[in-house]
Amino acid sequence: MNYIIVETGKTLGGIENFIIETVKKLTSDGNKVFILTKTNTTIYHQELINKSNIEIINLGINKPVEYLLNSDIKKLKDYCYQHITRKMGNGVTTVICPFFDNLQLGLLLFAEDTSYRIFHIWGHPEDWVKTLKIYKNSGFHKRKIKNSKYFYQKSLLSKLFKEDADFYGGRIVPVFNSWYYETELSPEKICTFPIEDIKKPYQEITYTLDGKIKVLWCGRFDEWKNEAIIHISKCLDSISQNTDMDISFDIIGYGSKKNTLYVKNNISSKNIEVNFLSYVSPQDLSGVMKEYHLGIGMGLSVKKMAQVGLPSIVIDSVDNKNIDKLKAEWLFNTFEGDAGDGYYFEMVGQPLNNRHQLMELLSEVINNQHLLEVYSRRSREFVEENYSQDKQIESFISCSNKSLFRGIGQKIYRRNILLRVLFSIYSLLAGKN
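Structure for Glycosyl transferase family 1 domain-containing protein, as requested:
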């Protein structure tokens, strides 16, 4: 079977790593995979170049689909026909598109032919919402921007849901987007993102504390994670005043200069030891994590900590105006891809009833240290059961092959002609500098 991945990632994040591992699985099973990129400098060239049954095709475009001119579209379609369509042969090809703009590119190139099924991947609940403004659109989106693109996305969302063409990765994605776009998205089951399996046999962590407990954060610095990192340090600093244990808090992660300075300038370290470890290579991450007694994080990072045996806490993302909404939970008490989503559920009027104050969870294990080994085992077993790479990737591939969405008659979203021309001029000038 043939698969096409429409992907433009330049950095290695959770979605990109997931796609790389999925491609490896597909090709090991004898499938042919074409990866479409916009440039020849993506991480897919670094990770998958020269692998058998994989062809990486550089489309050579530097614009979002909504800004393409008619001449750009003609060149793209001609190029696609020459380098992809002619090679497909008989049967149905599955086109996998993470993020909104890649989905638009997939529709542009393949929606006129019923031999292509199209499947979309969500990486974050606000992936589509962030594209509604022309300029940078970051932070939490609580105000609905009901422009022409909003209504286009609302209609497309409903089609994808009805034709089983969406991979949500976490329960909050359909919940948030049902609220934001005022449409009903209610999948019976959520297929979650996996964690890459540890190659070496797992070794049980023995907790010999020797009067010191080492706590780890792993995750980048950005607007919706910064407050959680700062809050962890404040809770640990407060707890340290009522225990004989020495507490250290190590931070793996980095971000923009602005976000890095914000975190460092607001970390409370009067009574605890704080160490900024910055970047740790993926190959070394598991070994480094095993040196700690407790892990706190969001997304795939907290699941990686649990996988190596750390008692792991999911902490919610919030902005600095809503610190009072910041809560947490033991990973093994969460469900369906929870990546630190409690505040999102609160935003849409469906608060989770199993969230606790972080101080409560930390005090529980620091005051009852025998629980660390119990929670270590429970965290690891939870990840093995719910986020197994082999099982989840097979489930994802099965989902993608069940998509009924062909995109016939589905128009792509385009900005008005003036904005398209202005963007083309800007791109041309930027390319010369």
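The two ends are 43 Å apart (CA to CA).
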